[in-house]
Amino acid sequence: MCAKRKSAAKKKVLFSEEFYSDMSAPDMLYAVTITSPFSYGRIASIDFNPGTKIPENYHLFTYRDIPGEKKVKILDSEVPVFSTGEISYKGEPIAILVGPDKEILEELKNDVRVQLDKNELQKDESRFARAYNYLTVSLKDGSAIEQSLIALRNTLEDFSKPRQVIAKRRLIVGDVDKSFADEEKTAFLVEGKWNNHIHYKSNKETEGCLCYVKGGNLHIFTPCQWISQLTKTVSDVTGFPKEKIFITRTLISHKTTNALWFSGIIVSQAAVAAIKTGAPVKYSLSRESQEELMELPPEISISHKTALDSKGLISAMDISIEYDSGSYNPCAQDILDRLTLAAAGIYNCKNVRVNARAFKSHNPPSSIHLAMLDSYSFFAVENQIQKIAEVTGFSPVELRQMNKAGGLQKSTKPFTFSFGRSSDAINAVAIRSDFKRKYAVARLSESGKYEQYDSSIYSPPSRGIGLACAFDGSGYLGPFFEKSNLSMQISVSEEKKLIVHAYPPSNSIREIWTKLITDNIEIDKRNIVFTNETIEETGKTKTSALVIPETLIGTVSIKTILLKKCLDSIKRKKIDGTSFSVKKSLPPSRLKLWNQEEFSGLPYYNTAFGTCTVELEFDSCTYRENIKRICVIIDGGKILSPKAAENAVHRSIQRCLAMLVDEAPLSCPAISVQFMQSEEEPKQIGHLVYSILPAAYTSALSQALAQPVSHLPLQTDSLFKICEYHARKNEVEE
User: Is the pTM value of this prediction over 0.90?
Assistant: First the structure.
């Protein structure tokens, strides 16, 4: 497809149903990124190896070629377009190479030479500084001295200094230390440390763009979610005024935090090349670069220390969250806030302390799908509850029912959550999976799991069953909420077409919205049009520039509610060929329910609740698990399209199962998904599975192994190593 803008002179933002990678332009050049082969150091120069023959129309651009700002402001972080000399992490973009042939570009890429500053390396008189006082390395052999350079970095920096904290959130309710010192309230004291580094890989189109300059305007085709930030970033870097930058948003494939802001860096790099060469430039990240720069899973470690009285009531929770955000991360504070909100899970406790910190490191910026962010906290707290059940002997079902915060109430934490009919959901999943009986049977057989005969081919498999609960908050009323456009507008044209002035974020949401419309109004779905153009009071149309992307706050359920209100108004009118428009907005009073400064109140517009059980067997001969059954029950308000919702949950389950063990997708022959009947307003449920299934899986595995499984993803030999370690430990004790 040839990349041409329709009505380019009139509309600054257009939306395309095409992928940018399918687009082309006459005399188009391709681009590949040159990344740092080192984790640390100062670059003296970047050039081709001596003797390299550079074909005509091939160019190498670095930060020195940027006409505008070399670094851009994104939220509270300053991010370099290319490394300005000081290397932040291995894989950091340091240059862009462009030319008309992809294969030649890949060959030339290996002939790029990176020279490190000898004066920087001579600061220290260590043997590494003397040995490598001047380093010259081409990209193809850069990794050979990576270990030496890391050792050199250790001599240049004092690693005994505290790590640099770039964001933090501290929450204190009650007196945790006093509760820990009270013997009555500390009949049981359980500690655990949990790590969830699951990488939800994607084989979709990688991030990139197509840029060209025409008629004094800069035209960009890219799958950007944050158009206002992209426009500002490109304007700052290229020097083009915002009114001369025209963007066509192509189909979006990724919704991670890095995809939100790093796309602006990628587009700016390509735009600089397009301006310098005067030719269209198409820039696509390689699959390897996509995983390193856009999809790098976060390093989040969560520690729990929980005190319970003799009746099983939680008296105190001390939670520590440590997050390696990489070299820079504009979303670090928002990530910590969301992790803190979910840190104590659904549980009510009078004494809670959460200490959350994000650290800067020489790693690439970590990336998180914000809709799945809560899953890291839920993985930790739900596994902690499982460990408490093992230590205390209380049933996991009873523990949750005794300690959960129920209904819409001000809990002893400073947050107000609505968990709907969470008690009914927990009871229902326990009955449907026969959880109590199976858990008791598996617990009775735990004591002899690691006897010598257990590894025999005649030994029966060990069984385990796990339970997990979580909520999924939508419409996060945090710092970005009031900047978002939370309104819904529908207009009816003279041709009796119904125009929804909001673009569905996914095909499944489009299906749900379409069904909602046809269920409420007699109209052929072929006459339903979705657009991002809104009608102003003057009657003119205006295209939304996506000031705040939906990914940051999760507004799908809110827009669905507003859509229903618009349809209710339209039903009271006649569709008779007269054009009219209806608009509904969220009341401003909802913004006052959350106090970001005090970090208290109602943080979400609404919350869905989900619970899950996983039943599995462990074969001590093959050291592999076999998942037998998964039961999921969700309270998501009124389900507008049950079939679409069920399919979405099943897809999430399959995707989750594929990532629990690296390079070894799991399967399950019996999956049950049920929704609780409700007339409450619809709630967002699409990502609940990621918060409950991993924790239920590790809980079941921990019971089957009689040994805590504290991290994900597992490797194919992880279970063997756990069993081997436990067997050796028993031998030493004997």
Answer: no
- What would the pLDDT profile of 474-496 be if each residue is shown by its tens digit? 888 777 665 566 788 899 888 88
Three-state secondary-structure class, residue 212: strand
pLDDT exceeds cutoff 90 at 274: yes
Task: Tell me the CATH number for domain 481-595.
Answer: 3.30.365
Reduce the secondary structure of 359-383 to three states and give it as a string. Answer: EECCCCCCCCCHHHCHHHHHHHHHH
Q: What is the mean pLDDT of residues 419-435?
A: 92
| Among 497, 474, 499, CA closest to 488 | 499
Which token pair is 296? 């790098």
* Distances from the Cα of 122 to the Cα of 117, 130, 395, 614, 716, angstroms: 9, 7, 63, 58, 45
The whole-angstrom separation of Cα 270 and Cα 283 is 6
Q: Where are the beta strands (DSSP E) in 86-207?
A: 86-87, 93-99, 112-116, 136-138, 165-173, 188-196
Cis peptide before 713 (omega within 30 of 0): yes
**DSSP character for 493?**
-
Q: What is the DSSP letter of 139?
A: G
Evaluate if residue 423 carries a pLDDT over 70. yes
Tokens of 560: 């669905």
- Residue 187 pLDDT level (bands cut at 50, 70, 90): very high
Residues 224 and 264 sit within 8 Å (Cβ to Cβ): yes
Question: Where do the DSSP E strands lie in 174-269?
Answer: 188-196, 208-214, 217-222, 245-249
Architecture of domain 409-475+604-734: 2-Layer Sandwich (3.30)
Residue of 352, 311, 386 whose CA lies nearest to 170: 352
**Confidence tier at 148 by pLDDT (50, 70, 90):** very low
What is d(CA 292, CA 526) in angstroms, rounded to the nearest whole number?
42
Report the alpha-carbon distance of residue 650 to residue 656 in Å, rounded. 10
* Fold: same for 409-475+604-734 and 481-595: yes
**Where in the chain are the domains?**
409-475+604-734, 481-595
Sign of CA dihedral 328, 331, 336, 342: negative
- pLDDT at residue 312, rounded to an integer: 93
Residue whose C-alpha is closest to residue 594's, from 471, 681, 482: 482
Per the CB < 8 A criterion, the answer to whether 135 and 311 are in contact is: no
Residue 381 to residue 375: CA distance in whole angstroms: 10
Phi, psi of 604 (to 5 degrees): -125, 150
* DSSP labels, 587-630: -GGGGGGEETTTTEE--EEEEEEEEEEEEEEEETTTTEEEEEEE
Q: Rounded CA gap, 118 and 24, in Å?
A: 43
